[in-house]
Amino acid sequence: MPPTVLDIFRARRRLRPWLQPTPVRESGWLSSRCDHRALLKLESLNLTSSFKIRGAFNALLHLVEAHRVPTARPMVVTASAGNHGRAMARAAAQLGLRVVVFTPANAPLAKRAAIRRDGAELHDEAPDYDAAERLAHAFAREAGGVFISPYNHPDVIAGAGTVGLEIVEACPDVATVVVPLGGGGLASGVGLAIRAAAPAARVVGVEAEASTPFTASLARGAITTIEPKETLADGLAGNLEAGTITFPLVQQVVDEVVTVSEDDLRAAMRALAAEEHLMVEGSAAVAVAALASGSLAAAVGPAVAIVSGANIDLATLVAAVGAPVAH
Hints:
This protein is α/β, with parallel strands linked by helices.
């Protein structure tokens, strides 16, 4: 069953002892580009450097509540492009749970190293995210584990929705919320929260042009398979799981979906580094890229762009933003 706004408030109560709210910071550079007030919701500064820790902790804490006897707690299995796996590994380590993570072979080294460092069992042989998800489902069935999707899970979505509550608390007059859109967990949760707490605000999802499962599916009115291409926004790439609860939720709570090019992504990552002194991954830059590139012609301020994560390999960052100038 899809989560409700009440589930998001329950998630915030669960997470309060474990996580601190992340900053909402005004960006002078982005405001000047947009001709209206623009702010950054810095999930890149969260624990494990990603918003994913919210959904991971909420799902595992709920699981622990349901299995109060430690010996009865099941093994947890997940698939991830990297950030969700890292978050699950950290949350599981703190809660004393066993977690098995499947990632693509090309997931950033920094993310895979962090997953191993926190003690999770990592399988990183899959050629792409879609294959990793299939392998994780099969492993969970065969080994008797509980599969927790990085997006298609009510507790994961509810945890992500706490981002929306914090945005409204920090910026009560928010008019536009711009959200990275991959599997739809963040957009679904944030959209639910914004609809309840700031119903006049618009919610815009942003995909990379190289991977547009929501653009294709929303146009058709049903989940549609695409052929993802290589993108700097690796955390957003891949198809939607059949029957995912995020698709009808995005239909319900997201006002518009737009795409950004790889050039837009590079420009946004470069500007965030130069102007805001922020190191972010490609997936985290899509919301800023949409605002800065003019993809959201109808956007009004105050606008909040969610900067969703900072887990990027140094070589990838340097290649994306340009090598530093020697003095």
